[in-house]
Amino acid sequence: MAEYTLEEKDGFTVLGIGTELKSHYTDFAGISKEKADFWQSIKQDGRLDWLKSIATNNYVFAVNEAVNNKMMHYAGVMTEASAPEGDRLIQFPKGEYLVVKGEGKMADELHNTLAGVAFGEVLPEAKNFAYVGGPNTTVEMGQQDGLVFGEMWIPVVRK
């Protein structure tokens, strides 16, 4: 099984700019393209830089969440600022989280690698815990030796 940890985290909130993913949830290629297009768009129009400018730390969150039966994807940060119209405050509960660490050449490679390990390897093989929904996130934590490094955080419950 892939390397992972279970960590207790305090509840936290992420301010996110989002998009609805239209691809079927099993269409990995379609979802990946939609996410890549979204990130490209918010980099080009300055929204990602704006988010980073109001952040309380250097972390950039890529959040997946089901909202009103829609599959949503957000770029977000931890901040003390209030949410502008159209953006969302995403609540992550206090509790235990599956944490998978990794790195990639680019942010999207990091996101895809961590999601593949977490949802494709760790969770299907887990005997003592399970993901039962709620927001999950990939956290870009920095760059080192030309690579983007970070973690995937998925809230879990003990079986």
How does this structure look, described?
This protein is α+β, with helices and mostly antiparallel strands. 28% of the residues lie in helices and 43% in strands. It is built from 3 helices and 10 strands. The strands form 2 sheets. An 8-stranded antiparallel beta sheet has the order 1-6-9-8-3-4-2-5. It has a two-stranded antiparallel sheet with strand order 7-10. The chain is globular, with a radius of gyration of 15 Å. The mean pLDDT is 92.
List the helices and strands and how they pair.
Blueprint: E1 5-9, E2 12-21, H1 28-44, H2 47-54, E3 60-67, E4 70-77, E5 88-92, E6 95-104, H3 107-125, E7 129-130, E8 136-144, E9 147-155, E10 157-158
Antiparallel strand pairs: 1-6, 2-4, 2-5, 3-4, 3-8, 6-9, 7-10, 8-9
How much is the radius of gyration in Å? Answer: 15 Å
How far from one another are the termini?
Answer: 18 Å
The biggest beta sheet, please?
A: 8 strands, antiparallel
Assembly state here?
A: single chain
- DSSP E strands, number: 10
Q: What is the helical fraction, as a range of percent?
A: 25-40%
SSE class: alpha+beta
Principal-axis shape equals globular
- Succession of helices and strands: EEHHEEEEHEEEE
Beta-sheet strand percentage?
Answer: 35-45%
Q: Give the mean pLDDT.
A: 92
- Biggest sheet strand order reads 1-6-9-8-3-4-2-5
Which parts are unreliable, with pLDDT below 50 for 5 consecutive residues or more?
none
Q: What is the count of DSSP helices, taking H or I runs of 4+ residues?
A: 3
